[in-house]
Design brief:
This protein is of the alpha/beta class. It is built from 13 helices and 19 strands.
Amino acid sequence: MTKEELKQLCLLEIDKNKDTIIALGEEIFAHPELGFKEENTARLVRETLGRLHIPYQNHLALTGVKGNLKGRRSDVRVMVMGELDAVICPLHPQADLNTGAAHSCGHNSQIASMLGVAMGLAPLAEYLDGDVAFAAVPAEEYVELEYRERLQQDGKIHFFGGKQEYIRLGVLDDIDMGMMIHSHAGVEDRHFLIGCDSSGFIGKLVRFTGREAHAGARPFDGINALNAAALSLMAINSQRETFREKDRIRIHPIITKGGDLVNIVPADVRMETYVRGTNLEAILDASGKVNRSLKGCAYAIGAEVEIEELPGYLPLIQNGRMSDLFAENGEALLGKGSNIYGQELIGATDAGDISSLMPFIHLSTGGYTGNAHSKEFTICDKEMAYVMPARAMAMTVIDLLWDGAAEARRIKESYTPKFTRDSYLNFWDQFTAGTIDHRSF
């Protein structure tokens, strides 16, 4: 059998299961669940893998599932990944009335497509020169932080993101490379988007502490923490000319508590901010400038400041060769010139963390209308959203694992990871402890 013949057999298997794939996606769409709570969605994944006789691990990072399809040799393992969770969007017509959760980011189509790949490859595993892992991951959306903080305090999680938890727990230690698909909001036509970039970010919780005094009678006895916070906003803004355009640094602080009573000098003022950028070095550099601004302005007013550093997500690193393979398969399905290259993914994803440890691609697909995370977001082309990604990813897996997994081996050998698992965990430990030196990256 040739590689192209194997691909055609795989496509026939996916097409036989087309209605099932779409039904799975629609079932998940109708029952959205927030991160680390995705019990129903995880059950659907388990049941589907079970029907395909693919053994799986369960309750990974609370709700995650990881299946492993064994090929005729098992020294290379390619991962297909999907995200279990929804986002909070209470005005969406399919939102959960109790939680406000809605699939207004398309994660339901990721899981359906991932399972579609499993349906296509499971009957043909004997022709693959490597294993295929199917990883359903919780909690990509950075929401319900107070809930996740309680889980963290209870020792149930360490990171707020599911993929970060997978890294910490060693779930990905046996994976050589991976891929996943994501919706691209507002792209209604049949396109795959290749090589999109995505910023990383870190978060900060800031507390300025001053001294209370009667604001009318004796303001001179107080230390105004709100003045320190307001001054720090100006200081942060004054740093903007030091940020390079190519790094796309974005800092957007808000004051979440400005004081207690209008006639009391504010002594307890809280702020939150993200620091975003396209590369880790620039993010850490900008983070240091933000911290200098916060500390300097507190000192100027005579206040104290506490800065709690929150691990965010790393910038996405797309693997060029894997992207090329997917692009070829995308054009084989949709026609020459159908791919779109180099679009920016405005937000951030913890897929960036995985891409710092292994070759990885995070593709996007059309078939969606409305803005992401909005009540208008929906699927306008179900075959494009659910089935076409399964076809293209399955074909790419075959490319990687054909002929002794030669392509996968070449990609693995040419890849230089930014982190090992241990250095990755050490990096975040240093960051949260405030001991990280951006000049070392």
